[in-house]
Amino acid sequence: MRQVAPPRCESDDATSRVAGAPATPVAAPRRRRVRALLATLCGVLLCASWAAAGPIKVVAAERVYGDIASQIGGALVSVQSILNSPGQDPHAFEASVSTARAMAGADVVIYNGIGYDAWAAKLLAASSAPGRDIIDVARLAHKNAGDNPHLWYEPAAVSALGEALAATLTRLRPEEAPAFARGLATFDMAMQGLRQRIATLRARYAGTAVTATEPLFDYMADALGLVMRNDRFQRAVMNGTEPGASAIAAFEHDLRSHEVKVLLYNRQTSQALAERMRRVAEEAGVPVVSISETEPPGVGYTAWMLGQLDQLDRALGAR
Fold it and tell me: What does the mean pLDDT of the chain come to?
């Protein structure tokens, strides 16, 4: 959707007097009335133009990306997020007809990529829409198939999305460039606060061994300098396969012997093995930090991340 520049409205003095005749005291008020009428008409046309254009339609496969779009675009965007509830298991999601319709009618589509939301890639390939902009976050972050897909836990990937999104919105509505620049600046300021918090925790806990039921937190753990253990177990759970007996035994040993200081537990999964490890951790007295794949309702991206970091700080500080 492209915004057409509003028509230029100017008054023509020839309408207020006979050609070549000098202006008279009576003609001046008449010219003012004509100018006022034309100015009103110009305003009406401008409003009609904006009403016809409407907000930029953004569809995000994941709620976290929809939230970022709302922060940067403000009232100039209309955002719909498909995976939007922490009660959903993203790995079990199946797209509906309404999802396909929403993505087909979007001006901008944002999706994670590298297989995390393969349904989104399939829908986009099935429906060509001239003029639709597609933002693949994995491509922005230079990730490839097989890399960890939980990109919202990597601040650099999120910042890259913010910049790409602001550039896309600006291209669609160049006259609103200052508004999008302000939105990006505000978002960048919040991201700077998150980076500072990460730096503080890294100085405090770098080198500490932790574990998790899934590789959800890996990018953030790397940023914090934590040592993540039991990768084989985590990837098997993420992919819905059974970890080997040795992987299960190693995980339990780490918990019971306190080789790890915290268990990061994805509360959006219902796999029996993940539940089992949570119970083992609780029995062994290892703190359990609950994390999620989906951003909670009513909480912005940086507040979500900071809240989880606060939980981790309390758990590690109590060891």
Answer: 87
**Looking at domain 195-317, which CATH architecture does it have?**
3-Layer(aba) Sandwich (3.40)
Closest CA to 277 of 295, 299, 292, 262: 262
CA dist list (Å): 33 to 15, 36, 59: 11, 5, 47
Q: Comparing 53-194 with 195-317, is the CATH topology the same?
A: yes
Topology classification of domain 53-194: Rossmann fold (3.40.50)
Q: Are strands 263-266 and 209-212 parallel, antiparallel or unpaired?
A: parallel
Predicted confidence at residue 47, as pLDDT, reads 40
Residue 98: pLDDT over 90:
yes
In 3D space, the residue among 293, 285, 292, 291 whose CA is nearest the CA of residue 260 turns out to be 285
Q: Are 215 and 148 spatial neighbours (Cβ–Cβ below 8 Å)? A: yes
Say how far apart CA 107 and CA 166 lie, in whole Å: 14
Cα separation of 4 and 303, whole Å? 38
Confidence band of 27 (pLDDT split at 50, 70, 90): low
Contact yes or no for 294/88 (Cβ under 8 A): yes
Backbone angles phi, psi at 177, to 5 degrees: -55, -45
Distance (Å, whole) CA 96 – CA 115: 18
307 confidence band (pLDDT: 50, 70, 90): very high
15 pLDDT more than 90: no
